[in-house]
Specification:
CATH architecture: Up-down Bundle
Oligomer: single chain
Distance between the termini: 42 Å
Number of domains: 1
Largest sheet: none
Shape: globular
Helix content: 55-70%
């Protein structure tokens, strides 16, 4: 099991609240983000299982794969900033995925609400990159920023498909 950094939030919900309140993350905050982004793949895959619409499933799975890419980029930023290895965990190694996590019925409204969080993720990563002194690490966060908006746009497309 990948360890949660000392003093860091112990649940996924607490972790989301924590990172969304930051404008300049520490290395430990970035570790929390690695765990959150890696969990995102599993959460998107679980959401995809809740749909019979093949195109909606594909959009959700694509978002999930990119969430793991984000985790790996944040992991690379940690290495650049601290020299420490903190690899993105698999689902069974992620402490934020222990036990059962809530699964909501997949609805267009829920997808639009999730899209809002993805658009906010773009702003969050941009702010973090703007406040980061290392340009190489900042560039990795900027890559994630733009893809967060891509996720939001896919979710809006999936919502429209469910309503069609």
């Amino acid at each position: 099991m990948t360890p949660i950094p000392n003093g860091a939030p112990q649940t996924l919900g607490e972790a989301f609240a924590h990172i969304n309140a930051l404008s300049a993350p520490s290395v430990d905050d970035l570790k929390v983000m690695v765990l959150i982004e890696a969990a995102g793949q599993t959460l998107y895959e679980a959401s995809a299982e809740g749909s019979d619409h093949e195109e909606v499933k594909a959009l959700l799975i694509e978002n999930g794969h990119e969430e793991m890419k984000h985790a790996r980029r944040v992991s690379a930023a940690i290495k650049i900033l601290s020299g420490e290895d903190f690899p993105a965990p698999t689902a069974d190694e992620n402490p934020y995925l222990t036990g059962d996590f809530p699964r909501a019925t997949l609805t267009a409204e829920g997808l639009r609400k999730t899209a809002e969080t993805e658009f906010a993720g773009d702003k969050l990563y941009t702010t973090w990159a703007d406040n980061m002194s290392n340009p190489e690490a900042a560039a990795l966060l900027r890559l994630n920023a733009g893809e967060e908006s891509d996720h939001g746009n896919r979710l809006l497309k999936a919502a429209a498909l469910l309503e069609a």
